[in-house]
Structure formats: structure tokens, C-alpha cells
Amino acid sequence: IKTIRQIPAIFGEVDILRSLLTLPGVTSVGEGTAGYNVRGGSADQNLILFNEGTLYNPSHFFGMFSSFNPEVVKDVELYKSSIPARYGGRLSSVLAINGRDGNKKNITGSAGIGLLTSRINLEGPLIKDKTSFILGGRTTYSNWLLNLLPDEYKKSKASFYDLNLGITHEINKKNTLYLSAYMSKDKFNLNSDTIY
What we know:
Strand order of the largest sheet: 11-12-13-14-15-16
Strand content: over 45%
Low-confidence stretches: 1-13
Oligomer: single chain
């Protein structure tokens, strides 16, 4: 996969993990999860990196949404064989996701509201043509949907949010400084008995 724009949209936004299932040798772990198996390996044999940081839980909300905000993703690479030595430690595959730099010329943004989730993205220069930032966030307000379930599930709750921040500073033509931050929280409570 060369760029995020080549991945089909699911649930109104690009879903990276579900789109991987369209590639040869990649299969789903099962329903209710966004994990994947590569060429017969198990899901824990895949290394998932976002800006070179390891993510252990790549999904939100029962596997319906990936942990990656498509507004801040630049490119996605899946290594299924001939995995570079710098990614040592996994047997099946490496999924390397890189965030994009913010706009160095103008402040721009976008937002969206859906039935289950909302998102916002803001980017622009801190120092014109030299330093930029990109900020993206998503959240869900899906508890109204769980209230439509039978009475034994009335007190159930499920929600998530994630925030991404990236700052890029060009020191000179050959050197660039990157700062990347990611924060995420999932909350799951099934009828006051289970907390996730």
C-alpha cells in the first residue's frame, strides 16, 4: 500500500485495518475485532507501528474502528515477507503507519459528525515555512445505541476517544525534528459487571 488514498472508505471514513483484509495472504481474526492474520500466523505475530511507536490494541469499539485517525495518516506499509532487520521481533508481518506533516503555509482544518463518532482536524504553521503542527481527534457518543438493546443491557456503556499531535521543525535542508504524541482511551462496561 503506497498511500492512504488508495484504501477504500468504510463507515464513512478510511479504515486501515479493514482495508488490509483486501490484500493477498491477509485474513480476519474473526468478527468483533480488527485484528488480522498474515499467511497463517496469529494476530500477536504482527508488529503494528504508528510513527515508529508500537501499538498493542489497533482497534476501538468492538473492532469497528481502527485506532488510526485517517486525517493524520500519510502512508501505510505492510511487510509480509523480507521484513527489514530494524523491525525484528515479529514472525508474520509489520504494519508501519506514518503520520503526515502539518501545512507549513496556512492554517486549515476539517470536521465531521456521524451517527456514532465525530472528528476534528486542525493544522498549520507555527513558524511559516519552517515549523508546522497537526492535531486530530475523534470521539464517540454511542451509548444511545446501547440503550436500544434489551433490558439486561440497559446499563451498558461503550465509548472511545483518541488524540494525535504532530510537530515538525525543519532545522535545515538535511535535518528535520519531529515530535509525535498519541493518546487514546476505550471504555467498555457491560451491565455494570465488566470493565474494559
